[in-house]
Amino acid sequence: MCVELRSLTALSSASDLMKNYSDRSYVRALLVCGAALSAYAGSVVRDRLGNPQTALISNSDRLLASRSKGAMDLNETEYFHELADLLKDHYVDPVNDETKLANGAVRGMVGSLGDVNSVYMDQNQFQTYQNQLKGEFAGIGVETYYEPDKGELTPDEKLNENVYGFRYPKVVIGAVLEGSAAQRAGLLAGDHVVSIDGHWIIDTAEIRAYQRLARKNPTDKASLDELTRLRKRLRLESDDGITPGRAVDRLTSGTTGAIQLVVNRNGETKSFTVNKADLQTPVVDASNGLVKHIVFGPTTVQLLRKAIEGKPQVTIDLRNNVVGDYVEMKNCLAVLAPSGVYGSLVGRGGGTSVFDIKSPDAHHPTVKVIVDSTTKGPAEIFAKALAQCPGNSIAGSMPKEDVPVVKSFNLPQGAGYTLATALYREGR
């Protein structure tokens, strides 16, 4: 399974706790949130706090954590607060802004899940995400997604996964919006972004290739030359490297200036100069029974209902569709399909529940859905569910695999995160 679904309870509880606090109690609320998150992530944090046999001691000689004895008896919530106290007690400068500690805790704990669909977003990033759900785009006019590094680890690397198992995902352009600067420049869905403005996007697959060759201690000239080439390349690129998250920020934010892109397209490197600008796109672009574009956002269901009203047959083009809200997608599904079960949701431990909808309408149109490899996320679930209705059809193909169900959660002061909560499996 592609995601640590056991994290759902901690993260959901954290969100519920946050809602019960006023703005004045933001920091305390976020620290409580972090404590709830640490029900999953605490053990991960312990593993990464330096020497596992060394106990961390505060001024009062309290035991914070020790792998040798007692550590696993420490309550996760207590562990979180002990760590926060330790930082405040021992950091070289006074820690006057606890908000930074709280935000860092949530960011790190969500990040520790290691899942490309579970992402912490600061205030600006979360606002960008919410704007996209309303059809308001900035940057170069693209939708992006993270493609996980699926490279297999060797047996030795698996034994030292904390060292060799760290992975960054690749940044892929999932959709190029109609009328955007990206479209005019010639960018295509599926392009893998390699660098932006000369900054290499960190690629752990390349780093792993260098590490493997170095561990072999090669003596032949060809291998030594390759090792030298990789070392020079990684040193040059890492000096100005950026993370995938920062790369996405540069692609999807800002309304002025231009950026220099290098992408990998089917193994070929291509360079582009693309201007940034505002772009307003309709969340439902429809005429004469053809829905050419749809964004599953807060206003979509009303516009979709109006677009198909009185139409016995509807065609929906779900190509170039990456961004969308799962809950809003289900609301739209109820406009097009009768009440019933349209698959299952696989949760923690392999447990399943039904994926069903309840439609308020007595009559529904026959639907043809157009899809391809750029149909992802909520759009993919939407298409697979609709295909199960008698008389409906799909043109194109999608992977025959489970789809992560990704939900978004708000945090105080405008931040938020997405979380994969289950896997959708088609079939009644």
Commentary on this structure:
The model is unreliable at 1-72 (pLDDT under 50). This protein has 3 domains: 5-115, no CATH class; 136-279, Pdz3 Domain, CATH 2.30.42; 282-425, Alpha-Beta Complex (2-enoyl-CoA Hydratase, Chain A, domain 1), CATH 3.90.226. Strands 3, 4, 5, 6, 7 and 8 form a 6-stranded antiparallel beta sheet that branches. Strands 1, 13, 14, 17 and 18 form a 5-stranded antiparallel beta sheet that branches. A 5-stranded mixed beta sheet has the order 10-11-12-15-16, with helices on one face. The chain is 37% helix and 22% strand. The chain has 14 helices and 18 strands. It is an alpha+beta fold. α9 (204-215) packs antiparallel against α10 (221-239), α12 (300-308) runs parallel beside α13 and α13 (326-336) packs parallel to α14.
Keywords:
22% strand, alpha+beta, 18 strands, disordered N terminus, 3 domains, 428 residues, Pdz3 Domain, 2-enoyl-CoA Hydratase, Chain A, domain 1, six-stranded antiparallel sheet
